[in-house]
Amino acid sequence: MSEQTRVAVRSRPRGWTDNAIRLIETDARRSADTHLLRYPLPSAWSTDADVELYLKDETTHITGSLKHRLARSLFLYALCNGWIGEETTVVEASSGSTAVSEAYFAALLGLPFIAVMPASTSASKVALIESQGGRCHFVKHSGDIYAEAERVAERTGGHYLDQFTNAERATDWRGNNNIAESIFVQMRDEKHPIPEWIVVGAGTGGTSATIGRYIRYRRHATRLCVVDPENSAFYPAYAENRYDTVIDASSRIEGIGRPRVEPSFLPDVVDRMVSVPDAASIAAARHASDVLGRRVGASTGTNLWGAFGLLAEMVAAGRAGSVVTLLADSGDRYADTYFCDDWVKAQGLDTGPSAAVLAEFERTGRWV
Ligand SMILES: Cc1ncc(COP(=O)(O)O)c(C=O)c1O
């Protein structure tokens, strides 16, 4: 007997998905790109030194942080993969900012949203998620968010977006106005248009993966430096070349530093890593807030601590050039933590020595 031609069909109506993608695309079209700010280096030394520092200001996204880009990409990725439909509850594991942005897109599409977050997440982020109709589900240890998010998705028949796995896949690293392309386009007419260094932190690792890949793809000489806070697995794993590293504590710098090496972190595109003490991140965030006249988050402090160190290295070597880093989120979200002396003291942190390093850098361009 001869084999017959057989046909299996799983085709479903695409009207809802078409409209969902249209809603996200039109939302993006109504939005402007984020600014690339020039960070004012002290004129006392920087005029001779011929170095420039730029801050990609990601606070100007509608949902206030760098994570707006990721949330948009993750929703488009899930929609185009057929993972989200009209009735889907969307679930995410997050330390806060990603969930704020995802709650926005879930509301845009009229979908229920549940954020699984560590109990330590700042009250203002919880309020932002809830104000957009999202629900927050807390776990005690940040390392528990992954399994709990899977459980919540299973229980609700929902879809777990899984930023930590999908960040590097969902972002178009070759271009499509990703953060790397945007930086290089905005730098085009600057004095040193190809940065010596781009400095970023890692939460999922997605931003560093996108920038590292883009630099290679475009064959730029720029190097990528990833800064990492205390209580994070990324730095020790990179330094020891062991990617099963697990840390039994939570990062105090919201948005960056993870207890495990996330699948979206791609060490092979990173040229250097710097481990930044939390007191230094907070001191740098406060210092930059004074310089800029607006509060920046602690992870921006981590970024700047790394960027200042590299600038000082360039100055000492007599090398001209530019460094770009990110203003990832606003310090207004952290009035009760990084900008509250009692909280800093209760954490056993002393920002004094780091503030002295920053003052010396400000005065002389030297990094002690
Ligand atoms: C607040 C904040 N969130 C997230 C990130 C990095 O995000 P991801 O690694 O998830 O792309 C940064 C990086 O500088 C950051 O400062």
Kindly describe this structure.
The chain is α/β, with parallel strands linked by helices. The protein contains 14 helices and ten strands. The chain has helices at residues 15-29, 43-49, 67-80, 97-109, 123-131, 145-156, 163-170, 179-187, 206-217, 234-240, 278-292, 298-317, 341-346, 352-364; strands spanning 35-39, 51-57, 90-93, 113-118, 135-139, 159-160, 197-201, 223-228, 272-275, 321-327. It has a six-stranded mixed beta sheet, with helices on both faces. It has a four-stranded parallel beta sheet with strand order 5-4-3-6, with helices on both faces. Strand 7, helix 9 and strand 8 form a beta-alpha-beta unit. The longest helix has 20 residues, at 298-317. Pyridoxal-5'-phosphate binds at residues 66, 97, 167, 200-207, 255-256, 297, 299, 303, 326, 328-329.
Short overview:
This protein is α/β, with parallel strands linked by helices and 368 residues long.
Topology diagram in text:
Elements: H1 15-29, E1 35-39, H2 43-49, E2 51-57, H3 67-80, E3 90-93, H4 97-109, E4 113-118, H5 123-131, E5 135-139, H6 145-156, E6 159-160, H7 163-170, H8 179-187, E7 197-201, H9 206-217, E8 223-228, H10 234-240, E9 272-275, H11 278-292, H12 298-317, E10 321-327, H13 341-346, H14 352-364
Parallel strand pairs: 2-10, 3-4, 3-6, 4-5, 7-8, 7-10, 8-9
Antiparallel strand pairs: 1-2
Helix pairs in contact: 1-3, 3-4, 3-7, 4-5, 7-9, 11-12, 11-14
